Amino acid sequence: MRQAGRYMPQYRKLRQRHSILDLCRNPELAAEVTLQPVHRLGVDAAIIFADILLPFEPLRLGLSFTAGEGPHIQRPIRDAADVERLPAFNVDAELGFVMDAIRLARRELPADVPLIGFAGAPFTLASYAIEGGASRTFTKTKRFMYQTPDTWHLLLSKLADVVGRFLAAQARAGAQALQLFDSWVGCLSPDDYRTYVQPHSRKALTIASAAKVPLIHFGTGTATFLEDFAAAGGDVISIDWRIPLDAAWARIETRAIQGNLEPAALLAPAAERTRHVRDILTRAGGRPGHIFNLGHGILPETDVAAVRAVVELVHGG
Q1: Active site residue 6
Q2: Is 0.85 topped by the overall pTM?
Q3: Domain ranges of the chain
């Protein structure tokens, strides 16, 4: 979803007629949106069009998107009883439309363009489920975590199981790499990450590893606990723009690394944008195992031509 994004005209045309959830639930449309960046931008991989919150429907939390306000969770988690009643479900049956979209997209993609599947990490999913939507402070999430740690761990363990199985199912459907998104984990201290989150991210990635495809572990704001984040698992560790790429790589030197252009750099004049890109490439130094990417999602107001220019610059070295 981030790769297609609201900045592409083709996507905006579809969104005039279909909601985000409609697009996700329609395999043909989801596959179409997945292919748009490959055709328009010339990127080296495709990422399936979906949303990290899709498991909330079979978990009976309710999910909707409010115009201009983002996701809304109709039955947020507030106490132990809410966690206890979360149902187990078959990911292939309940989220099969994602796997169908993967099969369709894989058939349409060139053989040399891999398809990436993804899912939200346990902490990020828990934050949405507890807050009832997006948050800037994560106050309800942290209160839940600190005041009811046993219930917290039960919640994240359940989410880790769902996420791990969902990722493995995407690989079985044809995804050639998998990405675990922990978009909001940077709001935690290093000690809280180790205590409350790391075991559950490790569980999700361990379950997904049975699929025998590369795993990308994505997070933002992780510079203060990067080693612990990497220790949770993943063949590739994604970093954001808040830490120089070479400094991050020196700290997790046995891993491949993904990153780490500041998304707002795509809004800069061409010369400044080029300077940012070349700095990252210089820091990578041609070392194998670098996936050039943004540190987070493309901003909605980004010009498609700027994205294309960055792709061409990276391909040109």
Answers
A1: yes
A2: yes
A3: 9-238
